[in-house]
Amino acid sequence: MNTFSFKIIAKDKKSKARVGRITTAHGVIETPAFVAVGTRATVRGLTPSDLKEIGVQILFGNTYHLHLRPGEDIVQEFGGLGKFMGWNGPTITDSGGFQVFSLGQKKIKILQGDEDQTEAKLVDIKEGSVIFRSHIDGTLHEFTPEKSIEIQQKLGADIVLVFDECAPHPSTHEYTKQAMERTHKWAIRSLAAHKSEYQNPKSETISNVQNPNDKKRLKQALYGIIQGGVYKDLRKESAKLISSLPFDGIAIGGVSVGESKKQMRDALEWSIPFMPEEKPRHFLGIGEIDDIFDSIEKGMDTFDCVIPTRLARYGMVFVSPPEGNRDNKFMIDTKKSIFAKDKSPLTKDCSCSVCKTFTRGYVHHLFRVQELLAYRLASYHNLFFINNLFAKTRESILKGKFLEMKSEWMG
Amino acid sequence: MNTFSFKIIAKDKKSKARVGRITTAHGVIETPAFVAVGTRATVRGLTPSDLKEIGVQILFGNTYHLHLRPGEDIVQEFGGLGKFMGWNGPTITDSGGFQVFSLGQKKIKILQGDEDQTEAKLVDIKEGSVIFRSHIDGTLHEFTPEKSIEIQQKLGADIVLVFDECAPHPSTHEYTKQAMERTHKWAIRSLAAHKSEYQNPKSETISNVQNPNDKKRLKQALYGIIQGGVYKDLRKESAKLISSLPFDGIAIGGVSVGESKKQMRDALEWSIPFMPEEKPRHFLGIGEIDDIFDSIEKGMDTFDCVIPTRLARYGMVFVSPPEGNRDNKFMIDTKKSIFAKDKSPLTKDCSCSVCKTFTRGYVHHLFRVQELLAYRLASYHNLFFINNLFAKTRESILKGKFLEMKSEWMG
Predict the structure, then answer these.
(1) I want to staple A396 with a disulfide (CB 3.0 to 4.6 A). Which of A169, A258, A318, A405 is the partner?
(2) Which of A76, A372, A376 to mutate: most B Cβ within 10 Å?
(3) So what's the pLDDT on residue B203?
(4) Does domain B5-31+62-103+142-305 have CATH number 3.20.20.105?
């Protein structure tokens, strides 16, 4: 039973922007949409009820982190990621590849006996698998495309991703090509593992069922990932291959790892002509406001990014234009002493419960004394702001005014 | 204009327990009541709206901490403690004495030049004042009874406390007597400063007004504090003197600093016969469940304590009997691995939103990965639990069943 579908509702006449609707077993996602990141089955101090209030439509869980703690078996036992964390809306998990490879750039000290230490890389890439060490306790783990799919099936999200290698930046053309070719082989293996699991299930229960007594299995949607680094020929080759495979959606990956905005835009430009019109398009790790506008304009549908919640933890909060602009990335630093006596809300005209209740001066105080509430309030506001921005982009596309909206924001 | 009043609604026939009502300019407190501690103008990850939902009736702010950050002038500029933090209910502040003296037990390194360090005590007690160093940056500050009252007037709580010396435990009879005598002199000076401020105000505006355009000044209620350590003669002397002065309420202090439960009960026993029936009685720093039952039985009305929120941050959550009992202090440690797969709520029959939404297994996970939400959920539940317990004690007193309730809980 496949309950996943995507429908384009409206297309902008002056750009490639589009409004769509992704339907999953756990609800509908109106696109363009922001996917809130809940790395370890929680979004930084916020409850699922906060997330509903904020207008969050879908949550992103990280397979790498959930595999290490609490482990996919526990999550499955609780009925899957959504049920485990008390969220009844749609969810998506990544394959674990991104964290394995980005943490793999670092070296860690491995304890040998009581005293001796030896340095070891966290990751060892083979053609068939990736062996990596937990960043928490140094224990060895192995991911294969099949293993990643199996874990994601236990996590039970509505949308899952193929296992890919996200090459570090900078990488040579030669290395990026090798990584891309591995990614393509892994994409095909992920697809086969995914198909086989539904034709020949290993486990009796699949957790993403709406009724816990209903053991019928809901097929998870599987997205392919385009890689290819900063190289035009590779991006094109990857986009062409991934787009030719029977995925439910297509993601663009590897553009958030230390590359410039120009390189991000190039990767998008090179990939998008090959991406099927009728499938949802996800941009992995992208979430700065100028990037969002440019990507929606080119026809991207969904975006996940830790920026709103990560920067919130440093006291950075979103502000509307004209105070917010391209240069300050639409953010102010509430820790600055100029805000100590500021009685205004975090940003004007914001209807979120934080802006309706608290002042900049109070939030400034909370950050200065490093009180827990600081992180919660800033995360809440930032997620509200970005979800509200997406709601406005959908509205503007429906009204044929997307480019006007973009220029109002971008100047 | 004095809007503070206390009325006894019902008295238990079989004990000294009583149900009362404290009326303040910012609302009513039904007693016995728990005062939630919001040290630095926030209660550990919770919003004022959470606190209302929980049933919190009154918040406690710490003058020492608020004086250092953000400073009483800033709080006054925002309209007082309640307005600053978005809480429209009643508030109480302490005098700063407790923190000055308890932090004063520690020594800190004082930087001299770039390299040299010298050890200095944080506090220097004189007859007329206390000079202390900020635990944050080592800067020197001076508190006098008058200064404490002035700061508390700027903080603008409904109830304020006299400046007292809380002698460390253990202290000799001789030292405790000296400290008590200082406390008595300071109580009289606090009372005079408080009276003088209302007869001859230094500042134009007082912040605890309900309508910010209304410059009329609301008189704050002032509570005296009984000290005297673990010595019967001193406790009696202190109770007699403090009770003879025209305070709006009487607090018992100095019983939470490293003394045994027996010593706490003794101090209560010795003091209470002198405490006027018609004035509200506050127990400073007391909040373990057995202590609460015993103190209510003896006729205490309000209690402030950091236990519910402090232990929450270590994963300790309240559970109802029979799982909770005197031995485990009605708490379980959710970090223990036995809870990893536990699908039950934090405690059975709890109607708080945490227990209605989340499992022990999920909260266990949040504590294991040290996620922000862990602290919020545990604090919420613990405060709900304790406020609900107080609501039940009020009900039981009204029904003449307080001792039955106590024995159900205490076994």
Answers:
(1) A405
(2) A372
(3) 52
(4) yes
Q: What percent of chain A has pLDDT over 70?
A: 90
Q: CATH for A5-31+62-305?
A: 3.20.20.105
pLDDT band at B115 (very low <50, low <70, confident <90, very high): very low
pLDDT, tens digit, for every residue of A9-55?
A: 999 999 999 999 999 999 999 999 999 999 999 999 999 999 999 99
How does DSSP assign B30-65, residue by residue? EESEEEEE-TTSSBTTB-HHHHHHHT---EEE-HHH
Instruction: Give B192-214 pLDDT, tens digit per residue.
Output: 999 987 776 655 444 444 444 44
Residue spans of alpha helices (H) in A142-300 = 145-155, 173-199, 232-244, 261-271, 289-298
Closest partner residue to B358 (CB to CB) among A65, A70, A86 is A86
pLDDT of A215 reads 44
**Prediction ipTM score:** 0.93
For chain B, say whether A70 makes contact (Cβ under 8 Å): yes
The values of phi and psi at residue B111, to 5°, are -75, 130
User: Which of the residues B306, B344, B376 would you substitute to probe the A interface, choosing the one with the greatest number of A C-beta atoms within 10 Å?
Assistant: B376
Collect all residues of chain A within an 8 Å Cβ-Cβ radius of residue B353: 49
Q: Does A335 touch chain B (CB under 8 A)?
A: no
At B263 the three-state DSSP class reads helix
Query: Do residues B248 and B218 touch, judged by C-beta distance below 8 A?
Result: no
From chain B, the residues in CB contact with A69 under 8 A are: 365, 368-369
Domain range annotation of chain B: 5-31+62-103+142-305, 316-403
Q: How close is the nearest chain B Cα to the Cα of A146, in Å?
A: 26
B78 contacts A357? CB cut-off 8 A? no
CA-to-CA distance for B181 and B192, rounded, in angstroms?
17
A293 interfaces chain B, CB cutoff of 8 Å? no
| DSSP track, A185-201 | HHHHHHHHHHHHHHHS-
Is the pTM here over 0.90, yes or no?
yes
Smallest Cβ–Cβ distance between B42 and the set A70, A86, A371 belongs to A371
Pairing of strands B159-161, A18-24: unpaired
Beta-bridge mates of residue A109: A119
Interface A:B, Cβ pairs < 8 A: 105
List pLDDT tens digits, range A43-93. Answer: 999 999 999 999 999 999 999 999 999 999 999 999 999 999 999 999 999
Among A40, A359, A373, the residue with its CB nearest the CB of B371 is: A40
